[in-house]
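Fill in residues.
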């Protein structure tokens, strides 16, 4: 039954994105089905958003359909199979359902969706700068690693709990091996993905980066010091693979085709490998050390202030596309300390959005369309999927987005304060937030205190986002226009449609 549901979702999506012949690439991340499209004009946005399984859409370098964690990983292979089988149009799915009737005042929700789409398009245009395009490529390297980070992180947390309780002592070493194996070789995977992203041969990128985790590097001396396996971590692997791509491309242009299969791989691995051993490992190791120390000092000395700024500014960073620079930083912290202390603080931004959405629901009792949108987007928001709330509710309204960020700031300040007081609250993986982050929490005082601090931080974020939005999120004009009650039928007049306030 579940398999049929995911198959039906994929079948409903396919014709609404222009059919199989309009799809050039299919991929997915934690929550989104990412599609490359030949002709964007063929996409039926409103009908797509009306599908029960679709939480929203995001237009970036690819067309991204938000399906939520778990669901997207099951729908994607079904969708890929349909695209491959369709060929010249065979197997096309029937048209998807029409947009549902949203009640007596549908115009407000439709106007919010239109404004959200315009804001997404504006953001996409502004994010097409060389720096942000580069950061997007860096994100493309690390995003495919997130499922493994999550799985291994949860297993590591379970193993730590069993060790602390002195349960199953014969099993815990095996769990430790399963949880640690991926992290021990993460440099290889980063190298593989880096080469693929920058146009090289993926396996050569992995081979070049593998030197970083090879035990024999302990016998190599660079800059007067002995190297240690793993030194430089993911940053070194990224640099090593990128250098390997440069060497490979240079060889492809100059080496005769008759000997290319022998010369190019050899020169690529040799040159990039030696450069990694006698330069990149040392430099990347120094950068990784400084990064870890800086993150520790940031929250241990200025925890409340730093948490306030990080929690409050994270969503604007997302809007600017700069949040992608944090992905390798999180991975570096996890590789060094076992968890990243930044992610739980940044996750408070989502809590502020949830609190703001609840306040919007309470402040607009007559706007059936907006309240319907909030109801449908709220539970994904609790689970850390924030796009439906951001683009469907708070951002198009303007002021509520700012007050939602205020809620995130207070939640971040709360978690940061406990870091400052000596209770580290970290995550063993990147990707989830909200309630979905609970299984991945780790810290220096055991799971009980760590979970309690994070849960209290979410509560602070919810409360602060609610209060800030309830009391400061609307002008009188906005309330008048958004919450106009329908005229009684006995008057014979048409019920006034909900409208979106033009001023914020």
């Amino acid at each position: 039954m579940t398999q049929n549901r995911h198959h039906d979702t994929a079948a409903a999506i396919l014709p609404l994105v222009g059919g199989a012949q309009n799809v050039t690439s299919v991929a997915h991340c934690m929550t989104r089905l990412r599609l490359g499209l030949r002709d964007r004009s063929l996409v039926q946005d409103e009908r797509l958003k009306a599908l029960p399984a679709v939480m929203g859409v995001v237009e970036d370098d690819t067309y991204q359909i938000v399906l939520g964690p778990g669901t997207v990983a099951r729908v994607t292979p079904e969708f890929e199979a349909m695209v491959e089988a369709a060929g010249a149009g065979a197997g096309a799915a029937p048209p998807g359902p029409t947009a549902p009737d949203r009640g007596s005042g549908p115009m407000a929700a439709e106007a919010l969706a239109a404004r959200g789409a315009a804001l997404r398009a504006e953001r996409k245009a502004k994010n097409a700068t060389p720096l942000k395009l580069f950061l997007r490529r860096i994100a493309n390297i690390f995003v495919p690693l997130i499922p493994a980070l999550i799985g291994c992180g949860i297993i590591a947390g379970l193993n730590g709990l069993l060790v602390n309780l002195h349960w199953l002592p014969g099993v815990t070493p095996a769990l430790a091996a399963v949880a640690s194996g991926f992290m021990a070789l993460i440099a290889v995977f980063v190298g593989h993905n880096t080469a693929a992203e920058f146009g090289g041969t993926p396996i050569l990128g992995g081979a070049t980066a593998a030197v970083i985790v090879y035990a024999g590097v302990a016998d190599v001396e660079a800059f007067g010091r002995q190297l240690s396996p793993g030194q430089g971590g993911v940053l070194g692997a990224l640099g090593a693979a990128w250098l390997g791509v440069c060497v490979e491309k240079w060889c492809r242009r100059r080496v005769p085709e008759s000997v290319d299969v022998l010369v190019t791989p050899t020169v690529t691995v040799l040159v990039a490998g030696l450069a990694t051993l006698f330069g990149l490992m040392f430099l990347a190791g120094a950068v990784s050390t400084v990064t870890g120390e800086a993150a520790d000092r940031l929250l241990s000395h200025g925890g409340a202030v730093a948490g306030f700024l990080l929690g409050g500014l994270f969503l604007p960073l997302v809007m600017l596309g700069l949040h992608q620079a944090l992905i390798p930083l999180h991975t570096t912290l996890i590789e060094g300390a076992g968890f990243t202390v930044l992610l739980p603080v940044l996750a408070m931004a989502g809590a502020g959005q949830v609190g703001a959405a609840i306040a919007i629901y309470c402040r607009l009792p007559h706007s059936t369309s907006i309240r319907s949108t909030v109801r449908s987007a709220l539970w994904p928001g609790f689970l850390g999927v924030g796009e439906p709330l951001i683009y469907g509710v708070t951002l198009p309204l303007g002021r509520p987005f700012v007050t939602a960020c205020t809620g995130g700031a207070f939640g971040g300040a709360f978690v940061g304060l406990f870091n400052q007081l000596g209770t580290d609250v970290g995550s063993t993986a990147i990707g989830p937030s909200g309630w979905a982050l609970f299984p991945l929490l780790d810290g220096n005082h055991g799971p009980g205190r760590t979970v309690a601090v994070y849960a209290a931080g979410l509560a602070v974020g919810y409360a602060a986002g609610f209060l800030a939005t309830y009391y400061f999120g609307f002008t009188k004009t906005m309330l008048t226009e958004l919450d106009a009650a329908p005229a009684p039928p006995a008057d014979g007049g048409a019920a006034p449609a909900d409208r979106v306030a033009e001023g914020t």
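Residues 300 and 419 are 6 Å apart (CA to CA).
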